Amino acid sequence: MSAIAPATSPALPPRGPLERFLQLFTEVRGGEGAPLLLLTLNIFLILTAYYVMKPVREALILDQPGGAELKSYAYAAQAVLLVVLVPLYGALATRMPRRRLINVVSAFFVACLPVFYLLAEAKVPVGLVFFLWIGVFSLMVIAQFWAYANDIYTTEAGKRLFVVIAFGASSGAVFGAWISSHLIRAIGVNPLLLAAAAILVASLILFNIIDLRGQAARHIGTGRAKEDVPIGVGNAFALVARNRYLLLMALVIFVLNWVNTSGEYILSSIVKHAADAEVAAGALSAGEEGRFIGEFFAEFFQIVNVAGMLLQLFVVSRVVKYLGVPVALCILPLVALGSYTLAALIPSLAIMRWVKIAERSVDYSLMNTVRQMLFLPTTREEKYKAKQVIDSFVVRMGDVLSAGTVYIGTTFFALTDSQFAWINVVLVVAWLVLAVATGLEFRRRVPTQEARGP
């Protein structure tokens, strides 16, 4: 893959038609187009499979007694589970080369799906277990993909090309949600697990093609391929705890998810109050309240997805190129600060709808891309092990603390939506300070990394 060639390598070939087309979205150099599209297709398939499985997750857990409550508790259980699984992943990374590690972990998740299908068909109550499993899958496998992308690209190339790869993730989510709704009508709910398994098998085959192709491209003319050695011996949690840069990243992601999940509660609460008000005013019958809520969120998610994809295609690369990663990292907390301040002052549905659309679309596009770029100037061991801690355990802990905030605020203090929004304002200020510190640390590391080469 040309993007991982050393800085002293011969000049890249001229841009072909594919690279010239991709220039619409970001700077793509000669020879980079095909490898870039293969990686983009890979993450597209992974996210498609995940969103094909999500309806099964909802159906299985809500079919169990107390399913809605189980969902709330399951997020905390995932955090506990990840305390065990992240070190286990690190132990595998210590012993296995990169390609074998990704193959083994991915094959394990694929092999689980036929088992879940057979158990679901036999009416075994696996809803909670599958909810935990898919939560771990969605965090660990996606983190693993981005660790690989960080591993094969230099900092300079990643800052240019991650924009396109991240578009593959967002479009895979949209496509997976769309195709799952059609597949359910054609084959039913449980068979979606087998469809997802087939998609993941395709993504795993594609990964091996990418890795073998990239290895051959890197070492052409040397007479031998470089050995793919195990990743390193450090403990995953210790890597984060003793490294200022990784710790700052972890804190940024932690507060981000705390704010976002709390924001979801505020939006849901305001929508529910609006529906109740419509019923009280006689504009809706009691039986139409669910339709009102469903229609609101259907339109909301559609606008968020379209806005996020447009930002990803046409804005993100320009922001990173002209403003840089440190500034780009601060844009979402600034948007969130304005959003929650406005929501705290005017906690209406119309206001909350548009501020959450702005926040979510920037999160799904710019922030999602930049948070992957933060790992570019890290060691290989940090990319694979520390990233699992930050992108899985830390993410889920942010969700858990948000749930605790909502529980305490509603149970003991009867806080209003406006007061919850003010709590988010305080959290966002802390998030912005952490983002500034992380961006400065990124800027300090990048010149050294690029001078050293891959």
Condensed summary:
With 454 residues, this protein is mainly α. It folds into two domains: 30-233, Growth Hormone, Chain: A; 237-452, MFS general substrate transporter like domains (Growth Hormone, Chain: A). Helices cover 81% and strands 0% of the residues.
* Share in β-strands: under 5%
Oligomer: single chain
Count the domains. Answer: 2
CATH architecture of the largest domain: Up-down Bundle
Question: Structural class of the helix and strand makeup?
Answer: mainly alpha
How far apart the termini lie comes to 13 Å
Beta strands, count: 0
**What summary fits the major beta sheet?**
none
Described by the principal axes of the CA atoms, the overall outline is: globular
Q: Mind telling me the C-alpha Rg?
A: 22 Å
At the first level of CATH, what is the class of the largest domain?
A: Mainly Alpha
Poorly predicted segments: 1-10, 219-227, 448-454
Percent helix, as a range, is over 70%
- CATH topology title of the largest domain: Growth Hormone, Chain: A
